Amino acid sequence: MSEHSTYGFTTTILHSDRQKDIEHGSPHKPIHTSVTFGYTDSRDLAAVFQGKQSGYRYGRQGNPTVSALEDKITKMEDGASSICFATGMAAIGALFQALLRNGDQVVSSSFLFGNTNSLWQTVEAQGVDVAFVDATDVANVAAAITPATRMVFVETIANPRTQIADLKRIGDFCRERGILYVVDNTMTSPYLFRPKKVGAGLVVNSLTKSIAGHGNVLGGAITDTGLYDWSAFPNIAANFRKQPSAQQGMAQVRAKALRDFGASLAPDAAHQIAVGAETIALRLERECVNAMALAKMLEADPRVAVVHYPGLPSHPQHALASELFRAYGALFSFELQPAIDCFDYLNRLKLAINATHLGDTRTLVIPVAHTIFFEMGAERRAAMGIADSLIRVSVGIEDTQDLLNDFSAALDT
Ligand SMILES: *Cc1c(COP(=O)(O)O)cnc(C)c1O
Question: Given the CA of residue 219, which atom of ligand 1 is nearest to it?
């Protein structure tokens, strides 16, 4: 198959490996377990080390199986290049390690994945100021910018309350001001939304979630969309300035974060993620249908106090979600009337599993204030709109009626 830009999302992923050298006719990129790579001519080895020739040197910096996945992620995001990491958090940590310096400032959405929130506290203790803003309005982002701002960081749909960042206007603002715009696309995935469309320079994905999809492997990725002009980024070291400006950012991330901190994705994991990714469109289509059906049913039930799902017209950013996303996602959260204890309700569910994680084929439920958002404390939870009784649901691919029956039977006490 030759490079063909008009193929659809799934066709492109399925045939991605065949656009490069095919080893032994294998439709899957084989799993290369070698940690090192030998050269017949020692001068080639030297040329690879000096960046004059492309090639692999050592597994921590690159591996053919991982490269094939990077290529797939790049195609999914319509980007220029990608780097994979052992986890989504390693990918986010890499932004800090490779691109930020003492005295810099980051403007971040305050509606954040809990561990990213925790990471920003670490970053603050190491001399980078983080301004948390309500990113559902670009005005709040604009007001927080200082001469030291190096990055604006947002998630697409926030977990667990499903607030949606003012994605397009923030993108326009960052472009005008020449600021690097980083979007964590995990909650939407490149199937529902491509941040490049709203001007993101870098896109982060936790591959652990919808992309791998089966809850059996961890991974993360950063994709450079090609939109950001790295020649304007102050923190590129002289060494990487020698590269063409389009490659400077990712060259520095690969060396300074992946190579030096070493959270590399294993080739076996890359293979598992690549197999999972083949069905992301099929899974998400079913998951979004299931999520909508459950959200509608619960919203209509008088025993439910509130449902947060971007697919409901009652959601504050419903219009924005309709404009930007292919569908409304596989995650929603809700609160029961105070008379029903959320733990008792969860214990009455038969199919849905009491577990953290999201973007899995199986439906998972969790009382967020008591688990994943417990560590951050009551004050920050209140600021994020997380009530003590809030239940988060990551909707799987089960048959729709089975899920409706499970969630509705559990309402009967
Ligand atoms: C899960 C998640 C991450 C972290 O990914 P891991 O692969 O678990 O490290 C980052 N951002 C968002 C929005 C997530 O949901």
Answer: 7
pTM of the predicted model as reported, rounded to 2 decimal places: 0.97
Instruction: Give me the domains of the chain, ranges plus CATH numbers.
Output: 9-277 (3.40.640.10), 280-412 (3.90.1150.10)
Question: What is the per-residue pLDDT for 116?
Answer: 95
Q: Say if residue 243 is exposed, middle or buried (CB neighbours under 10 Å; 0-12, 13-18, 19+).
A: middle
For residue 207, give the ligand 1 atom closest to its CA: 7
Nearest residue by C-alpha to atom 4 in ligand 1: 88
The finding on whether 87 has its CB within 6 A of some atom of ligand 1 is yes
Q: 400 C-alpha vs ligand 1 centroid, how far in Å?
A: 26
pLDDT tens track for 159-215 = 999 999 999 999 999 999 999 999 999 999 999 999 999 999 999 999 999 999 999
Burial code (b: 16+ CB inside 10 Å, e: under 16) for 301-319 equals: eeebeebbbbbbeebebbe
Separation CA 193–CA 197 (nearest Å) = 8
Q: Ligand 1 center to residue 113 CA distance, Å?
A: 7
Measured from the CB, is residue 189 less than 6 Å from ligand 1?
no
